[in-house]
Vacuolar protein sorting-associated protein 41 homolog (Gadus morhua), 856 residues
Amino acid sequence: MAEVEDQERKSSEEFTDDSEEEESEEEPKLKYERLSNGVTEILQKDAASCMTVHDKFLALGTHFGKVFLLDVQGNVTQKFEISSVKINQVSLDESGENVGICSEDGKVQVFGLYTREGFHENFDCPIKVVALHPQFSKSNYKQFVTGGSKLLLYERNWLNRWKTSVLHEGEGTISNIQWRTNLIAWANNVGVKIYDISTKQRITNVLRDDVSLRPDMYPCSLCWKDNQTLIVGWGKSIKMCAVKERNPTELRDLPSRYVEIVSAFETEFFISGLAPLADQLVTLYFVKENAKQLEEEEEFRARPRLDIIQPLAESCEEISSDALSVRNFTDNECRDYRLEHAEGESLFYIISPKDIVVAKERDQDDHIDWLLDKKKYEEALMAAEISFKNIKRHDVQKIGMAYINHLVEKGDYDTAARKCQKVLGKNMELWENEVYRFKTIGQLKAISQYLPRGDLRLRPAIYEMILHEFLKTDYEGFATLIREWPGELYNNMAVVQAVGDQLKKDPTHRTLLTTLAELYTYDQRYDRALEIYLRLRHKDVYQLIHKHNLFASIEDKIVLLMDFDKEKAVDMLLDNEDKISTDRVVEELRDRPELLHVYLHKLFKRDHHKGQRYHERQIGLYAEYDRPNLLPFLRDSTHCPLEKALEICQERNFVEETVFLLSRMGNCRRALQMIMEELGDVDKAIDFAKEQDDSELWEDLISYSIDKPPFITGLLNNIGTHVDPILLIHRIKEGMEIPNLRDSLVKILQDYNLQILLREGCKKILVADSLSLLQKMHRTQMRGVRVDDENICEACHGTILPSDMAQPFSVVVFNCRHMFHKECLPSSGTIPAVQFCNICSAKKRGPGSGILDMKK
């Protein structure tokens, strides 16, 4: 709309107050361009007096009586020589096909832009304003109004003649008219009126507030926000007037509509123009300030201001404010400025005699420009990413690069490196450039963790350069990169060589050795890696062996593995017996019996039979290193030589183990004797006797305990369920003092009573169950038995029922459900009173007996 695209990108400071822009951190809502091209040439020779905006073009009136039709870039498309004096108003209908023009010398012309037919009239007084009906192009609405000393309505009648009507007069010069649908609003020296052309009624009169201002110097500004809301600005006062329908019950002689002022407030400066912006308001202010710097006290004209305000009921809230540097602003008065806007577009035209400035809402590109100017790069990048489809002048990657440059300049290298991942994306050339830049500033470490390492990769030399940098300055960081980076990113041999050179200076450095082992692993030199891991006793040694099946390499390193971690080593060896045999392990551990014991113990726990050939050796190992597990081993092993075990246990005076072995070898009396004599534990002696369940052992135990009161107490407390306690009681000597004798005797009697009660309870349960089952059997046998054609005689195997049911017949059915013809059973003369089934009785007496009975 203004100049070329690069000029459009100029800062709004060209038109706005520089000092205010620098102080404000708030983003402006509008951007400004100067309407140039043909307009520039026109205003060099002439001056703008008025302008009207249409969606398709602009109509500009000048002080020299000319009207120019312009495109939206300011190029002249048509020119009309109307008068030799100032054009006061140009009006267009909604279609843009008809134009109305009035001038200071009283000329009024209304014609079609394409037909030039219309109304041409000269009045004897200046005509300040003309307004066409919005639908003037339609035949039913050939109407327009003019305003000078009177408000005249012109209508074309059916004879194609213009009929004139005076709508209002007598209140001074009419300075502004705005026509919306059927409502005409105009302003004169007294106030603002609204006329409803459909009902031919005037519906309101809004008086102006400050009557001290000259109407010709501070004219009224009018604009329609919508079809029912008129905005009035006059002097420093703004009123928003809502046109409403009156309740039919209140009509009487009143107009059908009325006006309600919904908002009224004062402003700081004089109003030169108004325009709606959604629910906000764009206001053009004429500013006069006192020239304090000058010696004489006078007022000077400051830059006009374009503000966006939010109207409230009795005040307003300022949203944005811009001071405009229009040409010759020091020579202009309030009446010299006008504000026009395009319906349906957020375009606002500030017209002054020597300049026309276009204000429009800032788009996403402008928003990004402002963020970049304020060095808010992160917000600019985010805005560009969100609106990448809508931005035209910016590139996401370029903004990202500017952000990275800004972070580097600030010294925030970590954030800059992190942003590279997002900004540089798949552009390998940019990646390499950034890496070299970070190298130049000594910050390779910062960018190392963000380098591409997936399908897209840089040249190996880039990764090697970073690894060498870390190897010189940071061993831990070097080790981290080796672990995180795939081995394919760099030349492994070159890095191994570099690590080797570094180890010559520090041959015992653990981190370097561990990293070298990892590099050997990447290079599939597992034996070298294993050697280092074992030397360092590194926890990953077992994972390395499993992962790469290095069992053949560790056959001679079993002791080292066991020394490092016995549990893990033994588990690994036992899990892989097919790769390293038990015999091989035992052979390797022959000089380390403590390790051999750990291995054989776990082997025995897994399978009692696998290491049976080593059980004899294990007896000594358990006795030496793990006595608590010796007895469980002796109990579970079936391949252990008892004599050898007994010999070892007796040598070491292991009483419990010796007792177990003696009992297992059948020498229970000797075992019991050891418990009583060496352990002196009556409870263990009683448990042993219970376990063996031998009357002779009980006799030995009683004989040994008879002169030992504590033993007698223990026996009395536990013997009741195994041996008749009378045998023990009769053998107690008179006068012997036995601790807790009374309690022991009470316990014996209680145990006896408990046994009696248990027996009686069992007897009752048995009798009740027997009776219940007998009753159930009786009920079952008493039930009727169904006899039909499907049943057969168990003797002759014929159908049990005769074919002729009218003939008498006899059938015998037993409780076992076997059926016989009566004549098929043995006769009562042979076997008197037969009351049993031949089939079932034969089963009881043996095979063939039933047949023999039948023959008899």
